[in-house]
Specification:
single chain; alpha/beta; Rossmann fold; 8 helices; 4 strands; 56% helix; globular
C-alpha cells in the first residue's frame, strides 16, 4: 500500500508529548515510519514536502524530517496535472499547502494521505466525491489497516 504523510504528521514526534492526543498520534506516526522502513508500506514524497519543510523555523526538526524524506523517491518537478488539481482543490476550499499535498498524493498514486490536521481531514471527508485519496489521521489509519 502506498501512503503520503504530510509535514504536520512527520513533525508530530517533535511536538509537546505531554498532551495525550499528541503522544498517541506520535506513536502512530512512529509505527508508520517503522512499517515504511520494514517495507510493509510504501511512502512517497513530493516537492510539496521539500517546500514546506524549507519554511520550518526549527532547524533540528527540519533536518530530521529532511533526513527521512531523503530516503524516499526522488522529487520531480510539478507536472501540469498536479497544478490543475491544485487549483481545483483550492477552489474547493482547501488551504494552499493542503491542496498541494493532496494534488501530489493523487499524482503519485497514494491510497491514503496521512495528516494530523483536523481541518484537512474534515475537508477531505467533505470532498470525498472529488478526490481519489483518503485523507486520514495516523491513529485511524493504523487501527483500520492490517499491515
Amino acid at each position: 500500500m502506498k501512503v503520503y504523510l504530510d509535514l504536520c504528521s512527520l513533525k508530530r514526534p517533535f511536538d509537546d508529548q505531554a498532551q495525550s492526543r499528541i503522544a498517541v498520534e506520535t506513536a502512530a506516526v512512529l509505527e508508520l515510519l517503522k512499517l515504511v522502513a520494514d517495507d510493509k508500506l510504501e511512502a512517497v514524497r513530493s516537492i510539496a514536502h521539500d517546500l514546506e519543510n524549507s519554511l520550518n523555523h526549527d532547524a533540528r526538526r527540519a533536518a530530521a524530517v529532511q533526513e527521512w524524506l531523503d530516503r524516499l523517491n526522488p522529487v520531480d518537478r510539478t507536472p501540469r496535472s498536479v497544478a490543475d488539481h491544485y487549483r481545483k482543490f483550492r477552489e474547493a476550499g482547501l488551504a494552499q499547502m493542503d491542496a498541494f499535498h493532496l494534488a501530489w498524493a493523487e499524482h503519485l498514486g497514494a491510497e491514503a494521505l496521512i495528516t494530523t490536521d483536523d481541518r484537512f481531514i474534515s475537508k477531505g471527508r467533505t470532498l470525498h466525491d472529488m478526490i481519489r485519496v483518503r485523507v486520514v489521521d495516523p491513529v485511524s489509519f493504523i487501527r483500520g489497516h492490517e499491515l
